[in-house]
Design a protein that fits this description.
alpha+beta
C-alpha cells in the first residue's frame, strides 16, 4: 500500500510544536471584524492548540 500524501491545505494551517502538540490559529478573525470588540479580536490573534478530540485525525492528515 502506498504512503498517504500530506494534505497540503492543512499543513499550511497547522504547525507541530517541539513537544509534538499541534498549534493552530483561531477562526472568526477577519470576517465582519468591525462589529467585533477590540478585546475579542485581540484574543483571537493568539494561537491555540488543536483539541484532544481532533488531534489524532489532524495528525494523520499532516503526516
Amino acid at each position: 500500500m502506498p504512503k498517504m500524501k500530506t494534505k497540503r491545505a492543512l499543513a499550511k494551517r497547522v504547525k507541530v510544536t517541539g513537544s509534538g502538540q499541534l498549534k493552530r490559529h483561531s477562526a472568526y478573525t477577519s470576517h465582519l471584524a468591525p462589529r467585533k470588540t477590540t478585546k475579542q479580536k485581540r484574543h483571537l490573534r493568539k494561537a491555540s492548540l488543536v483539541s484532544k478530540s481532533d488531534y489524532t485525525r489532524v495528525k494523520t492528515l499532516i503526516q
